[in-house]
Amino acid sequence: MKALALISGGLDSSLAAYLVKIQGIEVIGINFRTPFCCCEAAKHGGCAAKDAVKFLKISLRMLPIGEEMLGIVKNPRFGYGQGLNPCIDCKIMMWEKAKKLMEEEGAKFLVSGEVVGQRPMSQRRRIIELIEKESGLEGKIVRPLSAKLLPPSLPEKEGWVRREDFLKIEGRSRKVQMALAQEIGLTHYPSPAGGCLLTDPGFSRRMKDLIEHKGDFSLKDIEVLKIGRHFRLDSGIKAIVGRNEEENKKLEFLLQGKECTLQVKGGKGALVVLEGECSEKDISDGASLAAFYSAHRQDKEVEVTWKNGESEGLVRVEPGKRGRML
Ligand code: SF4
């Protein structure tokens, strides 16, 4: 008997897959990679889901969901959570994809690490039921961590898995999960906070601004949103300020010289990028930001060079923050 388990790399999804695997079920992990993934491992070029399946000794299918995710973030049918996280729509999409994969793989059911009452938006009992219904998976998802608090799923009713061996965890405390992890030797797992940038208040603010100002944003815009300080200038165009050499390089790479760039004369300090058609006033505002985020912040006047396509020049400005920081 085969089952597919959604593996985020977090503690709950690993334990859920484990609890099914030890019942003799062949478990295949699935991981959905969104443009908003931000676990600790990803920051260092790793992947928490890969670490998890290594521990579980199961295979992993990784599915990128970039463009579809953007569509949902722009216009979620079931709204946002506390940040700009459209969790209900996102889960429905993931389960729909998992359902397709389940049929392709000849698996009998799906496994989720969801815990009743753990997350305000998507893990309330009523919402869990809604998501199952909307994705056409009624009864087909086993949730080993909270199974005893939920109506029996089809695999439990049919005896494909032993319901009595599952748990009845509810709420946000992770005590039971941590004890179980220790018991089975699972020592490395990410902290519960993080994982998705859309739940981060700062990123959500920038994302909201992007939706308001650029309805047709792309995956590249999301990558830019992850870098630097962002300002909305008085004219409405956006200024992005690199926070270090690495971010300056990333910005140059992502924008490939298509935007107006500014930097203190001599090239030391933040690179400022102005997105879109910019006026003299925008260049002056961008230059003030470049001067402010350089070693010349205390100077009365600073020389800043700018480049915009074929044109380039130099302006003298007073260092200072301009526009509204996002
Ligand atoms: S936290 Fe992010 S990835 Fe997770 S369900 Fe919500 S929107 Fe999707």
Task: Describe what this molecule looks like in 3D.
This protein has helices at 11-21, 40-43, 48-56, 67-74, 87-105, 125-134, 154-158, 175-184, 201-213, 219-225, 245-255, 280-292, and strands at residues 2-6, 26-33, 59-64, 109-111, 141-142, 229-232, 238-241, 260-264, 272-275, 302-308, 311-317, 324-325. The protein has 2 domains: 2-197, HUPs (Rossmann fold), CATH 3.40.50; 227-325, no CATH class. Helix 5 (87-105) packs across helix 6. The protein has 326 residues and is of the alpha/beta class. The radius of gyration is 24 Å and the shape is elongated. A 7-stranded antiparallel β-sheet has the order 11-10-8-9-7-6-12, covered by helices on one side. The chain has a 5-stranded parallel β-sheet with strand order 3-2-1-4-5, with helices on both faces. The chain has 12 helices and 12 strands. The structure holds iron/sulfur cluster. Iron/sulfur cluster binds next to helix 5. Iron/sulfur cluster (SF4) binds at residues 34, 36, 85-87, 90-91, 122, 196, 198-199.
